[in-house]
Design brief:
Number of helices: 9
Strand order of the largest sheet: 1-2-3-5-4
Order of helices and strands: HHHHHEHHEHEHEE
Number of strands: 5
Distance between the termini: 34 Å
Shape: elongated
Largest sheet: 5 strands, mixed
InterPro entries: DUF2913
Pfam family, one: DUF2913
Structural class: alpha+beta
Protein name: DUF2913 family protein
Length: about 200
Amino acid sequence: MKKTHNTLLPEQTVTALAHFAWCALIALRTAQQDGQVLSPLSTHAFLLRWLAVAYKQKRFPRAIASDIESLVVLGRQKGPAASLFSRLEYLWSSCNGPVSAQSDLYRLTYAIELLKSQGWVNAAVSDRDWDNEALLVEEYREMDALLVRKSALTGGFSEEGKLVAPVEFLVTGNLSACTEIFQAHALPAVMMALNRIALQPEQ
């Protein structure tokens, strides 16, 4: 598993994401005005190419490289059904409003970015690794870490970012600091065990 530390503060990460989305949308608008993009298919092709080049050339901060890569992968896997334009528009609008008014997934992302800015490690692990708790605890025992099963994270939120299924986290280190930040971002975490917390969707 790859351990990475974010070098940007949460506010800086949000600003970087907003700037990235704005650049992509402006590039698309310019191409449309020039007559290069005239259909949903050409819109998808243009955005996918733009995203791939931006990722390859490292045009934006490393802290948001994984976000760009995810869009590239999604665009290649799903084609026009990936709705890259809508996703970029949503990213732009969500990054330009107060955190309290944003979706569950956005607030979780913001809380995680805040933890990472304080030295925490965050990792999404495979089902196989998740089932081997002893190994995970040993690997991250000397640090503050927030671990989540990738499949649970992917399936726990709707396309609009609403929490629709429980998402459980394994915490090593300062559990109280983690839960305080979650609560500060309107993410009520339920204790599942001494080192596990979970977000539960509203009934």
